[in-house]
Fold this sequence. Notes:
Layout: H1 4-57, E1 76-82, H2 92-107, E2 113-119, H3 121-130, E3 135-139, H4 147-163, E4 168-176, E5 182-190, H5 209-283
Parallel strand pairs: 1-2, 1-4, 2-3
Antiparallel strand pairs: 4-5
Amino acid sequence: MPTLREIRNRITGVRKTQKITKAMKMVSAAKFSRAQGAIESARPYARKLQSVLSAVASGMDEDVHPLLTTRESVRRVDLVLFTSDRGLCGAYNANIVKFAERMVAERRPSLESVSIIAVGKKGSELVRSRKIAPVEHAWIGLPAATLEFAGEIANFLTERYVSGAADEVCLVFSEFVSALTQQPCSQVLLPMSPEKVENPTIYSVEPSPEELLQSLVPRAVEFGIFRALLENQAGEHGARMTAMENATNNTQELIRSLTLDGNKARQAAITAELVEIVSGAEAL
Length: 284
């Protein structure tokens, strides 16, 4: 059994850890609030953008824009994996990578190659350590989710698709549900496939729908990536806030357990001293 001094040192160390986890939880809670507001504001825009794209592209040939053209044979696939740069967020990153690993295992038999485009340090490291698929490119040291950063990723993916290096580009990220729940999901980004609408809204477009699509399709690709970044950002902060709350609760339980052990050790020491005094008195 550890000595009373050792137990007291352990309690001191656990209390320091508790202060750190509480501070990290407060920081994550503040960031989470902003990230949650950002993704909840972006989702209606994403739905409306998809609706407009579907209405304008309805009835038009796929070759009106290269990003709308479906390849006859899909042999090369890029998986864009969104994870965080930092840890201490529970199983958040591991769940996304496991989801991507299952996708690769299911699709690999029918494909010539699968490449990972990692957005986030943790995803890049886990994919390489598990040897899931080659990492074609990785963004590490992620900035805040912005349209400029989304545009940088969109340009890279668009160039690969247009050049033929990839026949399909698929986003893999965690869809934010709540601070406690983040659901890994996938979404085909390229080729863009507007939903077929039975009674689409009729838009009067000038100079022509074709020219509008030249601007609308790249914007839709960029915003699809931007939404994935926002989902990833909100999920990360929510998962970290929950993980730090659990860690704080665990430290409280550990302090209670160590305090009980300390009381037992102190009681045992007092009992031993009393026995020595009584034994000495009897000897006299």
